[in-house]
Amino acid sequence: MKYIEKLRNSGLRPTKQRLQICEILFDREKTFHFTINELDQKIKNKIHNKISLATIYNTVHAFEKKGYLKQIPINSNQTYFDTNVTDHHHFYNLEDGKLIDLENSDVGPINIKKKINGKKIKSIEILVKLED
Amino acid sequence: MKYIEKLRNSGLRPTKQRLQICEILFDREKTFHFTINELDQKIKNKIHNKISLATIYNTVHAFEKKGYLKQIPINSNQTYFDTNVTDHHHFYNLEDGKLIDLENSDVGPINIKKKINGKKIKSIEILVKLED
DNA sequence: TTGTAGTTTATAATGGTTCTAAACAGCTGT
DNA sequence: ACAGCTGTTTAGAACCATTATAAACTACAA
What we know:
The first copy, chain A, has 132 residues and is of the alpha+beta class. Chain A is built from 4 helices and 6 strands. Chain A starts with a helix and ends with a strand.
């Protein structure tokens, strides 16, 4: 299993639940945008044993802390996560609430002219809202 | 009262509560970033009658719908609102959770190269996360 | 003044997320 | 292989921001 080493290297024990969640999250070609609720549904559909909701929360947060997932800054009643942890941006379709990736190369260079004393920029994230 | 006309023109009755909330929100020089909770505290400090929490929610949402407030897209356990409804961006100080305005003129032109069929861009918002 | 539609209010309900504490499972040293 | 430690999973309770409810109230037009 390719995820066993990855988890162990991060100081996370490769439990059955974590490995199953890894497969659902990372065995895919395209970026996966999801809420905990959507992930829970996917898990219910794809695997036969039950994974408790608390474990899903724990795992997603553990993966986020280790840098395998990141939160998408968006106002919604649910928190969105993204398997694409590179620097990139999002289209947000207001009609259906779906997200679409905007790679860094899809956006011209961003020039932040204002500086804040003693602070440095950790990330720059653009949210482009779309309407019909 | 300068807000009476403004409210009436928007189809909102100028009630005592709404006028008091207007003064707290809009009688200031600088942009105000706030959560419902912070607004509730400010109301408790500044006025003597009580305004119910439900009214605060109702009013903020009514003002947002009319375009006098806007939500700031940020992941937090509470929703942030902004009295600056112009097109602009934010610094987000990760250390203390405070927001700082980034005017459009503080950011160079943004070029979104990717297009989505049948969709048009409603807004472009940048969140710049700051660390020490 | 009277009617009505909009508003406020206290309180209950909702729902995503976090906490708890007990059972369980990897892992290391023997 | 076993013991023991510590990390993990789990069901359910708790938490808390937000929304819904429904009754009292109020601005405003007729």
